Amino acid sequence: MKEKLVEISNLSVSYDQKTVLEGAELIVNEHDFLGVIGPNGGGKTTLIKAMLGLVKPDLGSIKFHVPLSKVGYLPQINQVDRRFPITVLDVVRSGRTGGHLLNPFRKDKSETLYAEELLEKMGIAAIRDKAIGELSGGQMQRVFLCRSLMNKPKLLILDEPDTFVDNQFESELYEKLKELNERMAIVLVSHDVGTISYYVKTIACVNRQVHYHPSNIISTEQLASYNCPLQIITHGDIPHTVLSMHENHDHHGHHH
Predict the structure, then answer these.
(1) End-to-end Cα spacing for the chain
(2) Whether the Cβ atoms of residue 189 and residue 3 lie closer than 8 Å to each other
(3) Cα(134)–Cα(140) distance, integer angstroms
(4) Per the database record, which ranges form the ABC transporter domain (predicted)?
(5) Helix (H) or strand (E) holding 195
């Protein structure tokens, strides 16, 4: 039996009398790699916040079978204030529980060593002393990924990590996640259905309700039946590869 990490049952959440999630059910087990898709405003962000323990449900429950300190989170990097005068190494170290972005100066030797090891593995040890204001989108993403790994999480949640970065970095990121998935469960929010279905194991379509799809192969018909037609997920720009990839189900072949 796989160990359950987070269990969401009959979850309803509303803001200002507007229901964003209704009767949501979802279980995240160890080693899951779950892709979360859905239209903007459909409740994806609220579902993520629920998994981070940041949402007060109107109804239903969120049960954590792991301490919240073991849930790593990679926010959208456009929300990071680049003017903040902090170095790469300090950002990563601040990911330690009790570490705080505004007080990264508690110098703990083992913490620093682990942060350096993560930067090394991510291929960015050379920029450890740079200020975050000098980084490219891809570098920023790697730095915050390292930060989210500081507590050796059992669950890693990524919010649209494929925005604001170039294609080469994107594919490196997904390969890295595949590797991390051997040690932790991953929940990945994205609007790039083609890419995520190539890497994830299961999919959840979120549009006010959560439709769990126990496979990574999902057809346009299924998406529509989950109230998540492709157009509204991909912001209207449908990559043809998605459709062709799903029409011939051997998309793990060599033609990627």
Answers:
(1) 33
(2) no
(3) 9
(4) 6-233
(5) helix 193-199
Residue 216 tokens, joined = 């990574």
| Tokens found for residue 9 | 């049952």
Q: How far is CA 148 from the centre of its chain?
A: 10
Mean pLDDT of 69-89: 86
pLDDT digits (tens, 9 = 90+) for 154-165: 999 998 887 767
Q: What's the DSSP call for residue 3?
A: P
Map out the domains of the chain as residue ranges: 1-66+154-251, 81-152
CA atoms 158, 164, 165, 170: torsion sign: positive
Give the whole-angstrom CA distance, residue 128 versus residue 122: 11
Segment 166-218, tens digit of pLDDT: 777 788 888 899 999 999 999 999 877 877 788 899 999 999 999 999 988 88
User: Helix crossing, 137-148 with 109-121: angle to 10°?
Assistant: 130
CATH 3.40.50.300 is right for the domain spanning 1-66+154-251: yes
CA of residue 149 relative to chain centroid, distance: 12
Token reading at 172: 């490196």
How far is 219 from 22, CA to CA, in rounded Å? 24
